Amino acid sequence: MSYISLYRKWRPQNFDEIIGQKHIIQTLKNAIKANRISHAYLFCGPRGTGKTSCARILAKALNCADGSTASPCGNCGNCKKIRDGHAVDVIEIDAASNRGIDEIRDLREKVRYTPIEGKYKVYIIDEVHMLTQEAFNALLKTLEEPPAYVIFILATTEPQKVPITIASRCQRLDFARIKFAEVKEQLKKIAENEGLDIEEKALDEVARLGEGSMRDSISLLDQLISFAGNKVAFNDIMTLLGSADEEMLFSLSSSILEKDDAKTLNLLREGIDAGRSASQIAKDLINHFRNILFAKVGAADSLELTIEHQKKVEELAAKFTLNEIKTVLRGLSQAEMDMKWHPHARLVLEVSLLELIDNQKMAEQQETRLRPALPAGRQPSLRVVEIDNRIAKIKKHWPEILESIKQKSPFAFISMHEGEPLEINDKGKLVIGYKKGYAFHKDRLEEKKNKEAVEQAIKEAVGESFLVEGVVGDERITPRMSVEAVKEIFEGELI
């Protein structure tokens, strides 16, 4: 007999074997017992959460030889045929590959024929959102007035793409991502029954990588067995998937916290040399800093981490400011996106990590230069640190901001070119400083049209809105405008 994958072998065969969807199972069982079966259901939810399995079990429950029952026997001819996919009265359609109007017209023609083997004819349409608009239109009439012996079960991972005219004619049931503990418990049961020796830490990782999809977790376990045999260690996962392990993630996040460029790049190199992909490291780092974010705001309990792992995350979170965590997450998310299109993904990640560290260094320098000395033992407020980081971001993008202003208003550009962003004041305004004797530029900046051009350019560059105001007499500003620059802006000549 040919090999049967673990996922197919352990596919639920009755309602009680469905993992993590108690609200849906209870609803369907009650409907069967009360003989209140809807003519059409819309099963919504992420992949691998039991939508198709539940649809098949419902078909069994309705067509079991024992009669419609919430506990199908699984042994009668109808139950076995539905289990094996041979039942003539249970028709499964993959809308991803059969999405046209011709397939739906064929369905409408065959709906008229009564069931041959059971009480109901059940149509299961998987990924129904993939149907074309014409196909949906053709399906609509049948959904409105189906024969009494026909049940439609429409399954989708993207319910927002199902037309409201279709969805409103179905009873909608939403499948949730399966909880980490439930996935792990099922994996443990499978491992014991299959005679596997798997490390607890490896089991945790397989459950975590499934991201709430039982199918994905079981498939990964199957893949690991093919790779490592019946004894699976945590390092086997790292080798097979190229994932960043826990120790590496904590070391990398600590090096970012310490603002150590060389250590960060060396850790990244060691991970890649060990067989981990740059894109996977970026993804794992994002998940890691998400954990840190949750721990920082006191929501670590919702992460479903092991007690030991959660404690380490909370200890690390205490060392970061909230703004630093958010900045790292934004930077890594952008890097992950850029890596998909760049031919040198590793380089993108390296540069992004260095930029994150550089931004923190700039924020610290700004804090040292502008902030008055604090009494011994007193720490700066989170608000102050966040403001400093915002001004550092503006300074970083200043050339880009000036270029944008130049395109919007040459007069505003001249005024801004002579100034420099100094701080964000108590009113939340960005203060532009001018050297003594440059009040003309400050006044020009205050003109409504110029100010609007400046504020719009800043928003486009840094993604945040700031009102601006100018001040004159700050000795830190050095004049930079030259006659040649003015000639270039206005395309003029010197007379």
Automatic annotation (TrEMBL):
The keyword Protease does not apply. GO terms for cellular component: DNA polymerase III complex. Transmembrane segments: none annotated. It is an enzyme of class 2 (transferase). It catalyses: DNA(n) + a 2'-deoxyribonucleoside 5'-triphosphate = DNA(n+1) + diphosphate. SUPFAM superfamilies: P-loop containing nucleoside triphosphate hydrolases, post-AAA+ oligomerization domain-like. CDD domains: AAA, HLD_clamp_pol_III_gamma_tau. DNA polymerase III is a complex, multichain enzyme responsible for most of the replicative synthesis in bacteria. This DNA polymerase also exhibits 3' to 5' exonuclease activity. DNA polymerase III contains a core (composed of alpha, epsilon and theta chains) that associates with a tau subunit. This core dimerizes to form the POLIII' complex. PolIII' associates with the gamma complex (composed of gamma, delta, delta', psi and chi chains) and with the beta chain to form the complete DNA polymerase III complex. This is DNA polymerase III subunit gamma/tau. It comes from Candidatus Saganbacteria bacterium.
